[in-house]
Design a protein that fits this description.
The longest helix has 16 residues, at 332-347. The strands form 4 sheets. The chain has an 8-stranded antiparallel beta barrel. Strands 2-1-12-11-10-9-8 form a 7-stranded antiparallel beta sheet, sandwiched between helices. The protein is built from 11 helices and 20 strands. It has helices at 3-16, 60-73, 83-87, 107-111, 131-141, 155-169, 173-185, 229-232, 238-245, 263-266, 332-347; strands spanning 21-28, 31-38, 54-55, 190-191, 207-210, 217-220, 234-236, 284-285, 290-294, 297-305, 310-316, 321-327, 372-376, 379-385, 392-396, 401-406, 411-416, 422-429, 439-442, 445-449. With 458 residues, the protein is an alpha+beta fold.
Length: 458
């Protein structure tokens, strides 16, 4: 495989999508190939190198999941045992009521987004980060859904998993990530936020917000709440991601210098959980990895964004292939979608990719039944009539906005106006307890119409 082809592809994509800098790392046929393009920060002469650290965003979750698998391998935890049993002997730990849904939550559910927790929960402001207090606030917040019944992407669940890690290891999640994963595997990882005394965040590239109208890129700082670090607070290079991914490849392809955990323990991360139906996000989900179709096989993978950066990783254990793509721009996701197509066209490599479902049947005309606000924890999406034309518009707190196209099957698509017109899909559903469309699934999250019966309270 000619590395020049990869280099030309990446350089072409960053020009087209106005990305200041990017990395592509590909391990295939027993060989690692690295491509670096652009600068770490707009206006800087610091070129992106193989060691430049990019924010991983939600890809950080696979590292947290792998740390849990180490504890499972060592007999310190069980994936299908209630997490409250692991916390029962902790001094100062708040007791969870016998009838509270948290009593039924397991580590497998936390890692597969099937624990019934809200998508995001900041918790009460604290002078210093405390995952124990965060866990207590999650218990008080109550559950969004029944544990083990459905998929709803949850950063909150990974923060709870991080608390369990702290209890089992006797040290902070940050210390555990360094001592259990990064140092033993030889990974040059950093943290976007590091609350430990005397520590400062690791050096990373700058994120960039790109104006869709002018194409101008403005630097922005990466930021992640300390309590959500396990869900989105790790930074590193594309090559570090590939080295991590090689631990999941078949015999003869696994990286000898990336000793993450026993293959049998790691396998649970990619074993589809029956309750995990991540409509609009992936084809399935395990205890850490998403599952993405690539030809006749399912690739392990995860995608992440954070404050002007993007990260994508895919692993095919069957063929011994792993790749990662990092950018420092809000337009990185659109570039990734184009990269998947280019790799297929130029190299015949069918990277695992989830095709967004398209609305089917006639356009849905009963718009009045769909307007309103849908919420999941601190995430809110408003569906309203456009001022002209009578069409429906979606505006999310996350910044994604656009006109909805809705089929008679209540599946919808929206082109994100501020995300390089990337296409997202979702669907409206009925819980059977209210209006015909009192639930919305979007980008893996399940949201409930505001005012409808919601949480299972403490």
């Amino acid at each position: 495989m000619d590395v020049d082809v990869l280099s030309d592809t990446v350089h072409g994509l960053i020009r087209e999508h106005r990305i200041p800098g990017a990395q592509l790392s590909l391990y295939r046929d027993g060989t690692l190939r690295e491509v670096c393009a652009g600068v770490e920060r707009i206006g800087s002469d610091a070129l992106v190198s193989p060691r430049s650290r990019f924010a991983y965003g939600s890809v950080s979750k696979v590292f947290t999941a792998a740390l849990v698998m180490q504890l499972v391998e060592e007999g310190e935890a069980e994936l299908d045992a209630p997490v409250t049993e692991l916390l029962a002997g902790v001094a100062g730990h708040t007791r969870v009521a016998v009838d509270h849904p948290m009593r039924r939550v397991t580590l497998r559910q936390l890692l597969s987004h099937t624990a019934g927790l809200v998508s995001d929960h900041e918790g009460a402001p604290l002078r210093s980060p405390s995952l124990r207090r965060y866990f207590e606030s999650v218990v008080r917040e109550g559950h969004f859904g029944v544990p083990g019944s459905t998929f709803s992407y949850s950063n909150t669940g990974y923060a709870v998993a991080a608390y369990v890690i702290e209890v089992l290891t006797g040290q902070s999640w940050w210390d555990s990530m360094e001592s259990y994963v990064a140092r033993p595997a030889g990974l040059d990882l950093a943290f976007v936020e590091d609350p430990r005394t005397g520590r400062v965040p690791g050096a990373t590239v700058s994120g960039h917000a790109v104006d869709a109208r002018t194409g101008r890129a403005e630097p922005v700082d990466f930021y992640c709440e300390s309590t959500l670090a396990a869900a989105g607070g790790i930074a590193g290079s594309a090559t570090d991601l590939v080295r991590f991914g090689r631990a999941f490849l078949g015999e003869g392809h696994e990286a000898l210098d990336a000793d993450i955990a026993d293959p049998e323990a790691l396998a649970a991360m990619g074993c589809a959980v029956p309750a995990a139906d991540p409509f609009g996000l992936a084809a399935g989900w395990g205890a850490g990895w998403g599952l993405y179709p690539g030809g006749d096989v399912l690739w392990l993978g995860h995608d992440g964004t954070l404050d002007g950066g993007s990260c994508n990783v895919r692993v095919d254990p069957a063929s011994g292939t792993a790749l990662a793509f990092t950018t420092n721009s809000t337009t990185g996701l659109a570039a990734w979608l184009d990269l998947v197509g280019e790799l297929h066209r130029t190299l015949g490599l069918r990277v695992g990719h989830y095709e967004q479902p398209a609305p089917a049947g006639r356009p849905y005309h009963e718009a009045a039944a769909l307007t309103g606000e849908f919420v999941n924890g601190e995430l809110a999406i408003r569906v309203s009539h456009e001022s002209t034309g009578g069409t429906l518009r979606m505006d999310a707190d996350s910044g994604v906005s656009g006109v909805l196209s809705i089929g008679s099957d209540l599946v919808f698509s929206v082109r994100a106006e501020d995300r390089d017109d990337v296409l997202f899909s979702g669907r409206f559903l009925s819980s059977g307890k209210g209006r015909p469309a009192d639930l919305m699934q979007y980008n893996g999250r399940t949201l409930r119409r505001a005012g409808a019966a919601s949480r299972q309270a403490a």
